[in-house]
Write a structure and sequence with these properties.
The protein is of the alpha+beta class. The protein has one domain. It is about 20% helix and about 40% strand. The protein has 2 helices and 4 strands. A 4-stranded antiparallel sheet has the order 3-1-2-4. The radius of gyration is 13 Å and the shape is globular. The mean pLDDT is about 90.
Length: about 80
């Protein structure tokens, strides 16, 4: 499913997605094709699910124009240097 279709079907809400196809430009990952797992009505629930996501699953809001994620190569953990 393309992002424009996801935005049309699930307007102005959070959705749990699986990335099927993507490409990388610089330090950005652009999701080209995705599958919707489910919509999420509550922002707090969306945050909880996002923190637990692994692999190609992620939570995104349909108010965004495109699905773009910054690639972080060395994550910094709070309190750890």
């Amino acid at each position: 499913m393309k992002w424009e279709e996801v935005k049309r079907v699930y307007p102005n809400q959070y959705v749990l997605l699986t990335a099927l196809e993507h490409h990388i430009e610089g330090n950005k990952k652009y999701i080209d094709d995705m599958a919707v797992i489910r919509s999420i009505q509550d922002p707090k629930e969306a945050t909880k699910i996002l923190v637990k996501c692994k692999g190609d699953n992620f939570v995104y809001h349909t108010a965004k124009d495109q699905v773009v994620m910054e690639i972080v190569t060395n994550p910094v953990y709070r309190g750890v240097l």
